[in-house]
């Protein structure tokens, strides 16, 4: 049993399978999405825990039950004649498994605005539930980098009375949206954003609008290229006629369209927070164990 990815979903799945005496192997590239964040939030019992600390605790728990880890990136996956899977890593190492749980997460593709990428997870934010409390009552700027901009500005207004929506390269919102923004007292600034700086948002006109934090929406792309050799391609997620991300489609228990392959966490649910991803990993692991039990209980022919 192999799990690809050691974030919250992968570790939760590995812990479940280890306690089910499946001796899971977890393969991980060491590139967690939330590494820049100062803490994990809305995780009951672990509120504010640094992401690296949470992962370290999870690894120790899994090893206590017999699970193991292998560092590397899976670059290819093929099904063997006996139905098992053969995985090839970037260092040429090969691993075989009867079932796969894919929890590789996603990559945030930033808008091409100078200053955004290097401040991501610190003063450039994306989720009010993840970061809203930490910047409460401070001046917040929302840069319209996706169709979610108006929704985002309305949401962030819950945490602070001072929200400015920068239209950047997008048109003026619809009249109904303008009415909502006005009702929430969200200021609108037209004109292209030239850069995000420590002091705030720099417009192409040269004007600096002071902001303590800036919100942008990334394009969320599933880390799943290696699955295409199994016939499993990412599904585009569209909003307002625009693709805002890609994900691996899976049923509520994590089963994909490829028998023997499950997916959990952000790779299959772009909006899942850490605690949701962990729960999805547990569900998928339970489904995998049940599937293995069923195959092992088949009468000998």
From TrEMBL:
**Which SUPFAM superfamilies does this one have?**
FAD/NAD(P)-binding domain
Catalysed reactions, semicolon-separated: [thioredoxin]-dithiol + NADP(+) = [thioredoxin]-disulfide + NADPH + H(+)
User: Where does the source fall among the domains of life?
Assistant: Bacteria
Domain FAD/NAD(P)-binding: from-to ranges: 2-281
- GO MF annotations, alphabetized: thioredoxin-disulfide reductase (NADPH) activity
Against InterPro entries, the record matches this protein to:
FAD/NAD-bd_sf, FAD/NAD-binding_dom, Ferredoxin-NADP_redctase_2
For whether the record's keyword set contains Oxidoreductase, the answer is: yes
> What keywords does the record list, in alphabetical order?
Flavoprotein, Oxidoreductase
Q: Which Gene3D superfamilies match?
A: FAD/NAD(P)-binding domain (3.50.50.60)
Q: Which residues form a coiled coil?
A: none
Q: What is this protein called?
A: FAD-dependent pyridine nucleotide-disulphide oxidoreductase
